[in-house]
User: Fold these one by one.
Assistant:
Number 1:
Amino acid sequence: MTAMPMPPPSADRSPAEPLPADTLPADTLDDLERALAFLGRIQEASQRKRGYPLERALYLLLGRIVEGEGLTISHLAQALLLDESTVTRQVATLGQAGLVEKRPNPADRRSLLVAATATGRDQHTAMRALRLERIGLLFAPWSESDREVFRHLLGRYIDDATARINDPTI
């Protein structure tokens, strides 16, 4: 099977120029709404059944901290589309578990930087390996072409939704 060429994310349309929702077939919208809602449910169920060492929200936060090393609460909140108060509570939980530490911000003494500890990096690496193994098993039956198309479209959806998160019409 020949791989389908991947257009750049903005080749079909610009996120700044969306199609009106009423031009899309109702059954398509219904299917997409149900699929997106159920995707969240699948993630929650997987988390419970797999017994991962970190809940999904903490895993995502720790991953961002591991990638960025030395980030402010404000930066983390913005990057993860969360309120600062939520990130503060989650960082406290990670700190109590010995996975992150706070240190003074040399650029601004009024703020602190959050960094992963060696234990935090190790735990994130271990959980990531478990998650990647599971994802690999789920997608193994798919053709390479199907995996690439899905990866592209899911990435596009995430990029578009993130770019328009503050749009009150969505």
Number 2:
Amino acid sequence: MNCNIFKIKVYDYLDGEIIDEVLLLSIQQHLEECTCCNDLYKTKIKVKEQFTSELTYKNILFASRNIQVMNEIKSDYYKDSIFNRLSLYLKRNRFKFVGHFVVIALSIFFITNLKYSISVFENSVFQIESKLNISLKLKSINEIEDNIPDGMWLYNNKILVKDVHNLRIYDLKTREYVSVNDEVNGYLDDFTISRDGKKIIYKYSVTERKENPYWIYNVENKTKIQLNSKEDIWDVSFDDTGRYIIGEIANLTPQKFIIVDTSKGTSNIIDTKTFDFKLNSNDPIQISNSYSLDGKNIFFKLTTWRAVSLTLSDNYKYGIYKYSLKYPTTVEPLLWLKDNGDSILKYDIIDNGKSIIFNGKYHGELGVFIFNLESKNVKNALTNLKIANTNILFLNYELSSDKTKIAYSIKLSEENSIGKYNIYTAILSGDTLYGDIKICSDMASIIDPIFIDKRSSGWSLDNKQLLLTTSEMPESNDDPFAAIHNSITYKYRYFLVTFN
């Protein structure tokens, strides 16, 4: 650690807010080796003691940590009273810092007059909580000791376990499995779960069978119904309500959407050949990631291709469009990335339909981005979080069921973090993220709660728990092509993160 980094971190160190053991050890070692920083640290302690002793009223602590004030005031000039200190401070800095005087004076006034209106915030998350009425505080991280295969979180302590041939639900309380599919002589072709984790749609294919329909499984009552569609569909997803299923009819050009009302058993097919995508070219297009909030509008990702570079990623362009069932002959372009190499991997509609959140690359920068449909502005949602300036190799995210919280995984580019992931959570309000919490770092082969094109949540239904899954390759394997032959038996580890 160098002196510049120490000067930035010294305030967090003073307040006991550094939980990263490596960083904590680096700071302590630097204090032992650097005389100048050690003197600075002792000075900051004196400053903090002087301020907190004066700004305490009946055990209510008003903690001011304004960096400019703390850096300018020198303990050598302190006298007996707070007023003398402020007088000397203002005299040395003239009118430049009059604002600081006003802030401190008003703070003292409110402390002496408002006995019950001041709360002690432990960190920035709680300041956001007071404004948004949303809490996010890490309570515990516990590893699930049960030996469970590859799976994902459903709800009520249930994990959906999948392999090539079966879908099963594992109950953490009873430690029993319930089979989702009855067939045994085929393979699992496709599946996804509803946002609330109560429904599963899957396709089980048997080679001898001409038709392999989709089935909708109800997790609560353990029943299933066949999807009412004669079409061969793929890339299916639930809308946010869990009532409608949206998919694309396979092997058709131009492509066709299908939307199924599971409560009525009716379906509607939408032909895209009449769509005007408002593109200034005849480049080949691909529609994917169809999605709906409530079955009334369909959002989808549009990808075009043109050979402009030897770099493969530069040949693709991406956009998000909206189709309304009220206007069956029109389609509305919402977002279009113009720069070569920019990309959209996964997206969601947030803020009551006012914004789009997506991960990928924008203007050459990797991140999680939020596009405001009213202002037409795109911003990196991580800019006001601690991770903003970190070199990132890959980033993905997952929203909670109510879309007020987000978990995101980051693969870092530091040498000691190659192949490792850090997991963070934050509060999502409007088009902004607040108060990130680092859950874990350097997790190997993370299969976070995150999927690039499936809306499967790692969050619990009450949005208070998050399931993280990691996989570990066996130490030895005689088959050098085991990954290709699907003969590797991975060890899966599950970590249940609980918030207050």
Number 3:
Amino acid sequence: MIIKHQDGLSKLAIDTRVDGHILLVGVAGDAHKTSTMIRIAEKYKEAGYKIVVMMDNKDALDFARMGLPAYQKFQLDLLKEQGEPLESHKIQILHPATLTIPNHKIIKTQFYTNPIKNLSEPEIHFIIGSQDTGSTKLITNTINIIKDSDNFYEFIQLMGRNLNAKKQSIKGISVDAPDENNFNIRLGSGSDKKDVKDILESFKMFGSKYETPFLTPKSYTLNLNWNEILNQQDIITIFSDRFIPFGNRKLRLYFILNRIENIMNALSKGGIRHPILLIFDEISFIIPYRPVGYQEITSEEFKNMYRIIRNMGESKGTSTISATQEYFSVQEQVMESFTEIYIGKLGGIKQLERLSKASSYSSLEKDAIKILKPGYYLKKGKEIDNPFEALVPQCSLTDQKIPITEMFEKYNPEMIERPEPLIAQLKKDLKTWQEESLHTAKEDMKTEAERISKERKRKNEEKNATKKVEEVKAELKQTKNESQDKNFDRIVELLKEKDMNGLSNRQIANRIGISHTIVNSINKITTLINQAWTLEDLQLRYTNIKPERITKIYNQWNKTNIEPQKIESGNEQETTQTTPEKTEAGKDNTF
């Protein structure tokens, strides 16, 4: 800004050079910051700038006065004296879509939404309150997967679709159930449960039932065309969050961050035909001196905004005007981004003392600030110059006696409307999204129940098949054992009659149809029985033969005491021991 003194008046003119960043410091009321910012904005508009008011911190729509003509006598007299024309401006008020809009007449407001797929990484960090890599990746991956037509509920459900959830029984099968208190997501005790539950809690800043349906499908009718808005130089765009509960500071701050992200994105892509002036009503709300949690993210992005603007160069021509009540309520690093700082009437001697100490003011400079009249400013660095009083705006001033809605009803009635149709449409769309998401969740439950049922059936069939195989094996084994027992009985009988029938071991084996080595082994056992070996001795020697089989041979042989003296093994003769001497476990061929 350049101060020009003319005809005894301290007039304010504007240097419309690029990357001009102005900060006004002064206590509310006495400093007349809003009126000064409006007058500066009017000068920028005359120079061809597109004016965008980024926030309405007091929820008073102070900047909407730019859409009203001056009507108070003292203002009309001042404008005439200063040779300034009367002028009201075309304004556009934008507000995030919400169901908390009152059902009475309001100043015409365009309610808008933002595509889920356009969520930037800084916005994600802000929503979850940290820069946690895992959570950011989970959200980013989901954004990349969802379709352009997917709504907020589908986005949330997709994040939790593969997680275990609280159970509900369908046809006797326990499956994950949708939680209507968590956007109908089917969430339970999966490995990522904590991450997703924390994310869900973060998104509840839009309302536990999504009462502020701001994040929408890409094709939703209320999404803004940012290029179109920024190219309407003749219209002053005013963003307001006045219908968002003041206590929900995080949500209100998020909307400011979202605007910064969208505007910087539009500027970086090109296609904006006019330089931009961004106005921030109370900058300490965005970048407090000591930011905590999510405030750190908006603070960093605000500083990043200045870096981007500087790097864009003169062709983009983006400037800012900001205001704050206290000089030290804003981070020092951000203060360094301002090209011009103007000090107005400060709120108390303590603030003046602190500023004087930090700026190494002389007593003369300190006194110059101390005696400032309401509405007057001194430029920082030139504190001993003559103070100036900004010219009054060409548009209306605030009238404390008349609410701004009544002012519009009287002087600009076309800007008054009732929002019921919009509220009805928002409620209808939200109900549709909720019902569709609940239906999808229940269908997923049925699908999972069917999958679990099929899986159980398959496992039971496999189990039954395995059981059947084992039963068949057992039957075959039993049949084999019975067959072997019969063969062994026949062998023992033939061995008893060996002297009478004249059969050799090999001939006995051939007659029965088994290996002659088995006959040899049985013949050895019967020989040891004849030598007075006890059943226990035999079982200890032949540990590789089932005890019950040895017992059967022992009992059957002892029915008739026939004592073969020699054992044939093929064409060979073998002499056996005649005393029950203990030996190691036999290594004979088993059967």
Number 4:
Amino acid sequence: MTVDEPGVPERRAASDPGSAPGPSAPADPPATADTAATADAPDTRDAPDTPAGDSRGAPDPATPEPSEPNPTQTSPSGGGAGGGTGAGGLGGPFDEGSGAGDPEDEPDPSALRIEELILGSQRQYTPFQAARAAGVSMELASRFWRAMGFADVGQARALTEADVLALRRLSGLVEAGLLSESMAVQVARSTGQTTARLADWQIDSFLMGLTEPPEPGMTRNEVTFPLVQLLLPELEEFLVYVWRRQLAAATGRVVQAQDDEEMVNRRQAIGFADLVGFTRLTRRLEDEELGELVEAFETTSADLVAAHGGRLIKALGDEILYVAEDAGTAAEIGLRLIETMANDETMPELRVGIAFGTMTTRMGDVFGNTVNLASRLTSIAPKDTVLVDGAFRAELTASGAAPESEKESEDLSGYRFALQPLYQRPVRGLGVVEPWLLRRRTQKG
């Protein structure tokens, strides 16, 4: 892990799976140029076509398709944000990268029935047909599909009217000048990655309740369909509600910024919280026990961060990353995390590192030397302690939450926190730093 990687400590070698190739597209090209997936080999299969004079209208199934890319020339299948299980039929039960017609490639009827319930329509378009029906070039459609994490389906009929409509909407924002093409791709990527993980979480939760059929003799398929039928509209409305609340909060932060520079490069406190000895735990615990521990840690941490005014940036299994607008909030969160985990016998020890300074925010993540410094402080912190940097200490004392010097201050009763200087030490890539030990002040001082 390099020093400059945003928001991820050096010791965690998290890999980036990258973007999957989109339907009917070649393997991901360099960022400076995307190539269209086209070929000259005709496809004699009957296919929907777009009526003459209306490039964005609904295709006419009676009109033969003049030409489509050869399925054998498409790129290898692969997953993106959802690990190869995208939405819109592209990551469904259909064999990736295959054409229609082979019996072993036919979708499972029960899975297809559930897919149609969720998507609201049947599969009827190949990627080429969907792009043309939407009035979008195959190159741009492939970029959008790759960004959303959809698996490659070759030229199988795996797309629905919803896929065509989504292409029209996204490309329409570009045509109207509301989004640049690159920004539209970023919107597709962020939405795909976020919802892919959300879908995995929800399915995992539902499956926990389906380990035993409610009635003897009932199969999981017989239980799943009515369950999805009941939950789908409710979860869809709830998703929109939460998204609107989060969007309102994010918009508020932008509006309150003093200028455009502050919107991107902001002075904030950033903290890492890391479970000590997690690698040893992975060798000792069963997979299910490890999963329960990680879930408990992430849930408890997320609740604490939100309850005390911080914002959780990401959870990485044995570690979380959070930001706060002021040093006092970040300090309270860090100490609360230590105290809460210490009182839970099922949890390993925790250590926290916090730094204060300018950082760049982009696509929901944070970047910069301040982020890296907080990561380094976490790695050198003893268990059950919070280490902070000099800038954080200055911000905390300036706010009146901690004294400049406990020896020189006669009355310490009004302070919430205490700071103890530690030996200076070199930190790779950041020079020599002087960490400070943060603790909560007691009434006895």
